[in-house]
């Protein structure tokens, strides 16, 4: 069972997220917290795997709260839900310890996929957030590096197919449909790719695909 807690000052929003996830058998919303102080004081009672941090103002105070939560309780992985897609806030949130970032228009399926991904030990960013992070990466890196033949040769043909589709912003379910495999198999391929070439986040996965001309920007 994946235990999830929500930090949000709006009880109605918390109940809405809980209702959204009610039909998922292995995800349980165990508690709601109105403030970061309340969360850090009581979080060890519910022992969550995932913390959903709902951000409204998306400012320096939120970044400070994210840092405090992740420092005080590092057994859970924190995911931000926010309307704010400013590059500076996204990057500061990640630096503060957030392992996932979703916009408020995310779908139920993407929310579930994000929770599963974080629980498996990997980061998760929605498509729009991934594009923002990649644009930042490309601006800083300038010319792309040449192909890393040795690392590419480690990957199987199917893993390269999965990598290409994922780097082109297809979701796990869309990749599964295109390749006639299960979603769990897609996740397994992605995990194997990241393990083989020593990557930690999904953004790193897309960067690798760009550097090696597996996908076009």
CATH C-level class of the largest domain: Alpha Beta
Along the chain, the helix and strand elements come as EHEHEHEHEHEHHHHHH
**CATH level-two architecture of the largest domain:** 3-Layer(aba) Sandwich
Low-confidence stretches: 143-147
- Give the CATH H-level superfamily of the largest domain: Response regulator
The secondary structure category is alpha/beta
Mean pLDDT: 85
| Helical content band | 55-70%
Shape: globular
Largest sheet, in brief, is:
6 strands, parallel
Strand content: 5-15%
The CATH topology of the largest domain corresponds to Rossmann fold
Strand order of the largest sheet: 2-1-3-4-5-6
How much is the radius of gyration in Å?
18 Å
- DSSP, total strands: 6
What's the domain count? 2
Can you give a write-up of this model?
It is globular and about 50 Å long. It has helices at residues 11-20, 36-46, 60-72, 87-96, 108-119, 127-141, 149-154, 157-167, 172-179, 183-196, 202-211; strands at residues 2-7, 27-33, 50-55, 77-82, 100-103, 124-125. The chain is an alpha/beta fold. It folds into two domains: 2-135, Response regulator (Rossmann fold, 3-Layer(aba) Sandwich); 143-211, Arc Repressor Mutant, subunit A. Residues 143-147 have low confidence and may be disordered. It has eleven helices and six strands. The longest helix is centred in the middle third of the chain and has 15 residues, at 127-141. α1 (11-20) links the parallel β1 (2-7) and β2 (27-33).
